Amino acid sequence: MKPGPSRLRKLCAPLVGAAAMFVALFVAPGAAEAAVGSHSYTVTATLDGRTAKDLNNHAYPNKYPNGSTITVVCQDSGPDAYGSTVWDRTSDNLWVTDFYVKTGHSGFTDEVPRCVNGGAPGSGSGRPYTVSATLDGRTERDVNNHAYVDKYPSGSVVWITCQTTGPDAYGSNLWDYTDDNLWVPDFYVKTGYSGPTPQLPRCSGDETDPPGTGPHSFPVTATLDGRTVKDVDNHAYPNRYFDGQYVEITCQDSGPSAYGSTIWDLTYEGLWIPDFYVSTGSTGFSSKLPRCTSGGGGSTGGHSYVVTATLDGRTAKSLSNHAYPDKYPSGSTVTITCQAYGEFTYGGSAIWDKTTDGLWVVDYYVKTGTDGFVAGLPRCDNTPPPAGGDPSGWDPGSPAPPSSTHQEKVNAAIAAARAEITNHPLYAWGGGHGAHPGPTRGFCDGINGYDTPGHCAASLRIGFDCSGLMRWAFYQGTSVDIGPVTTYDLYNHRPSIFAYTIHRVSDLQPGDLILSRPDSSGRPAHTVIVSKVSGSSITIIEAPRTTIPLRETAFPTDTFVVGYRLA
């Protein structure tokens, strides 16, 4: 196992199931969560039954033989016992050390409640935890808010429904939301974690009706501190970035070794994180990212990227110019110093890149991570976009040739949606709703488009929201633009390209458009395309929301509202 970072909490293998449940809370509204209550587990050593959480207590010697099954009714913290401070209360009203109980977790398990008043399991909405100090109940994430003074006495149990970040509170920026609809600082809540709790969801407004891929946004694979210098001992902003969160990286630099790598990444907030835990797709410097200058932002000599086709080096922004044939082989790296508009090239793109050789290459085949201009790269000149161009750098050109059969339309639509998982993986609120079908820059509307409080991720991304992706996919399949419609629009009026309405999940077929996730009024708030059907198992392609990339995944059938089928 790779060494874990200082002040960094990485989920252990036994917590994979809990992490999957955590994701499911965002992915499938209404999906059933594992019931919290008494559960039976196998013990891995012969255990005494204790009347107190004390290794010197042997009230019932050898009560539970090695390999036997016990029923745990609740768990609590206690004195260290074999490297764990978790103790389990059995259905016999006795204590055993959790270290030798095979719950599948190295800490508290999310299946069993916390113990209250010495042994009885508590009940409430969310998950129960003990507070280690008397806490006010706050109506806002603000240590100066004292709406309910001394609401939660030290040692009492509080039920937490979700967590999110906020202003620093006693050395942590993590806040917990109670079932009383109040905020408490996580620092004094004994969740068993000093960072975010994998068994609890993030608090956020669910993006229900979507209205550039950040070329430098990448998921982190562990909860990371934000550091003001490249130093693993610097913990300026503890647990700043959640495991799985997409973080915008501005540049990379060398620095002290951190977990086997000497590469450090600078975030959009001006904080350093170790590259070892950033999924850039490379174990070394990423071709998608510039190098930092003088330990900070900026780049030296341009940005380096991989080309996806063998490219000529051109002395002018023209496809008819072949000054240096096959100058840059497919898969090689080129360094781009600036970008500019020129004549249309491939896929409707009008962006050209200038290399450090002083030559032009078509941006369409340069893997910058975006179909638009790259943030941080200067413009080579002030050439305006060609007639019919789009300020984002995207012009759809002509769609795929009209398909002659229903199946050809279906295949083309599915292929177009699936391709965007790679081409524009990050969800962009408002993306895909430009004058023409295709990826556009997203935006934030005060509620949606944010990946952390106050950070508008959508404005940094060129890509799609859910209905924008469907518009693009079916345009490629039918050559007909259904327009910049929202999910609600689609529900209120079935576009002419669809000939049938489907009312039963069992009738769905590949290529069908699904409207799902009913809101409080019963109207759908999400739209996806069916990619596969196998028995009762349905697979979809979707743009889920800001914090979850585009994906092909199982469809939660309980969210189905209605479906449409192509003519």
Automatic annotation (TrEMBL):
What is a GO molecular function of this protein?
A: cysteine-type peptidase activity
According to the entry, every stretch annotated as the NlpC/P60 domain falls at 407-567
Any GO BP annotation: proteolysis
- What residue stretch is flagged as signal peptide? 1-34
Residue stretches in coiled coil: none
- A Pfam family matched by this chain, by name? NLPC_P60
* Stored InterPro entries: NLP_P60_dom, Papain-like_cys_pep_sf
Q: Which residues cross the membrane?
A: none
What are the protein's UniProt keywords? Hydrolase, Protease, Signal, Thiol protease
Q: Which stretches does the entry tag as region Disordered?
A: 376-408
Protein family according to the UniProt entry: Belongs to the peptidase C40 family.
Question: Would you tell me the protein name for this molecule?
Answer: NlpC/P60 domain-containing protein
Species name for this entry? Planotetraspora silvatica
